[in-house]
Write a structure and sequence with these properties.
Layout: H1 5-15, E1 24-25, H2 28-34, E2 37-42, H3 52-61, H4 65-68, E3 72-75, H5 79-91, E4 95-100, H6 105-113, E5 117-121, H7 125-139, E6 142-143, H8 150-166, E7 172-176, H9 181-193, E8 198-204, H10 210-216, H11 240-247, E9 250-254, H12 256-270, H13 280-287, H14 289-292, E10 296-301, H15 311-316
Parallel strand pairs: 2-10, 3-4, 3-6, 4-5, 7-8, 7-10, 8-9
Antiparallel strand pairs: 1-2
């Protein structure tokens, strides 16, 4: 697989009418704690509340009309589901979304709000894929994978492209990693648009497959799954892993306690709403300050779709 600089530039132009160019925020208090200059790319302010609209929109806009006619389909616990539902509405087609029955309520409600047809399944990969295959067989809808798709990766790469254009001369970029769509896109944009910069990833200890995969050189499963960062539960794919393995310097893991501490810090000091997955890179940076000391660091806040009913439980545990 080869995603070119030109393809990322073309994807950016293609999706611009449908997305926001999200702001880059700073916080002197967090800079002082980190011992570095941090620049937060706030995809929590993106349409649908997450970066996923970039990849989903790019994938849908590249489909020929004949394929769009039968609708589009995916499986997702939330943010990609919203992206596909939104993209379907924008292009006048039908969206079929398979969601685990434990998906965050805020994300389920948003998918319904965009007019998609939801099929709930048991919260495991086998159930997701089986339910999706039945829908594709029945409807002829085009499956758009949440992350393991070149069209999606190319769209996600536009986030770091925007950040690097607005804040040049970054020493380091750090993004969260689940399935690797955002991270692989970030790594590619950094390689093409700021080749002197280094890319790190933040990953929850409770879904730590990427760090094992980077170290072993092949895709590994997480030893266990248990984290509040519900957007990062998936494992790397065969399209995202090679990019990450080649272009990402390291994957830094953090505990749920460290994620909650970073979440509190952002809420209290920056006054912005982010979801737990979004602060994993900041938690990783604060845990490994020596790697970032004195550097200019771009951090991608991946989304802000928070299940508000869980906030008191998280913060009481802090």
């Amino acid at each position: 697989m080869t995603i070119t600089k030109e393809q990322i530039e073309q994807a950016h132009e293609r999706i611009k009418p449908f997305i926001r160019q999200t702001p880059v925020l700073t916080c002197s208090t967090i800079d002082a704690l980190a011992g570095a200059s941090l620049f937060f790319k706030c995809e929590n302010f993106q349409k649908i509340g997450a970066f996923k609209i970039r990849g989903g929109m790019n994938a849908v806009l590249t489909l020929p009309q004949a394929k769009l006619a039968n609708g589009i389909a995916t499986h997702s616990s939330g943010n990609h589901a919203q992206a596909i539902a939104f993209a379907a509405r924008q292009t006048g087609t039908k969206a079929y979304i398979v969601m685990p029955n434990n998906s965050p309520r805020v994300k389920v409600n948003a998918v319904k709000g965009y007019g998609a047809e939801i099929t709930f399944c048991e919260p495991n990969q086998q159930a997701r894929e089986a339910a999706l295959q039945e829908i594709v067989d029945r409807t002829g809808a085009e499956f758009i994978h949440p992350y393991n798709d070149e069209r999606v990766i190319t769209g996600q790469a536009t986030c770091a492209k925007e950040l690097l254009e607005e804040i040049p001369q970054l020493d380091i970029l750090i993004a969260p990693v689940g399935g690797g769509g955002l991270l692989s896109g970030t790594a590619l944009s950094t390689y093409y648009f700021s080749p002197h910069s280094i890319v790190y990833a933040g990953e929850p200890e409770g879904a730590a497959d990427a760090v094992l995969s980077i170290n072993s050189g092949k895709i590994e499963p997480a030893p266990y799954i248990n984290t509040i960062a519900d957007g990062l539960l998936t494992k790397l794919g065969d399209k995202t892993f090679p990019i990450i393995h080649e272009h990402v310097k390291d994957v830094l893991t953090v505990s749920d306690e460290e994620i909650i501490a970073a979440l509190c810090l952002v809420y209290e000091r920056m006054k912005v709403v982010v979801e737990p997955s979004a602060v994993v890179p900041l938690a990783a940076l604060l845990k490994n300050k020596e790697l970032f000391a004195g550097k200019r660091v771009g951090i991608i806040f991946s989304g802000g779709n928070v299940d508000l009913s869980k906030l008191s439980g998280w913060f009481n545990a802090a």
